[in-house]
Amino acid sequence: MIKLIVSDIDGTLVNNKKEIPDSFWRIFKLIKEKNIRFCVASGRQMQSLEKLFEPIISEIGFVSDNGAFVKFQEQELYEIPITDDIKPILDACEQIKNIGVVVCGKKRAYIKTNSESIFQEIVRHYPSYQRVTDFSTIDDTIFKISICDKETSKINSYPQLRDFSKDFNVVISGNFWLDITHQKVNKGLALSELQKIWNVSSDETLVFGDQMNDIEMMQIAKFSYAMKNAESEVKKIASFVTEYDNNNEGVIKKIEELLTNT
């Protein structure tokens, strides 16, 4: 029996226009009727997730910043900020062309880029932000460094930053995104904390995702679904693949199918 449903956001629950399908709100009522908990798990900042799900903010769980920060019913349950020096990473970013850098704090995101097009793409995901020219002046709890990569993260920024994985968790979170967090941060560890709090087992957990930063949470869910549009590596890890992609309500259709057949 499914007791917990967890969904990634970009490339998974929302379409490529970053919109939640209208049918989600109908399906959420069904989820509630079945007494199933619902949680979103994303690389986005907490403020972005809370804005997106404002009508049900007090009813669902939120895992933000790839698992660095967790809230439920507007209470902070769990956080793992970056504690090591991030200056070497930021210095390395200065040598990479066609990127924007976001230092993701608890209060807001701090954005540095000379490209207006990259800046506009970043603020689509980070509604609470401050544009800066110098990261050294930030006074905030830092959860993550995000790279918005115009050349695609897999071929441009990741090869130049992957050596930092000795001390940090460096993961591709989208075609144009790379995320760097504390080495012990991932969505799977955050989800395991919620499973403990809610007394839900892996056998009772349903997960949806599409990118490399979703793999760890798929590994602790019996019902793990990679999106039809997911990366091939993610499809290999997941137990199942959705019939429809994120632009055709793949998550919603699968939830409805599973819940109406139980």
Automatic annotation (TrEMBL):
A Pfam cross-reference name: Hydrolase_3
Coiled-coil residue spans: none
Keyword Repeat appears in the UniProt entry: no
InterPro entries: Cof, HAD-like_sf, HAD-SF_hydro_IIB, HAD_sf
UniProtKB keywords: Hydrolase
GO cellular component: cytosol
Keyword Hydrolase in annotation: yes
The protein's Enzyme Commission number: 3.1.3.23
Gene3D superfamilies: 3.30.1240.10, HAD superfamily/HAD-like (3.40.50.1000)
Broad EC category: hydrolase
Molecular function terms, GO-annotated: magnesium ion binding; sugar-phosphatase activity
NCBIfam families membership: Cof-subfamily, HAD-SF-IIB
Protein name: Phosphatase ybjI
Source organism per UniProt: Capnocytophaga cynodegmi
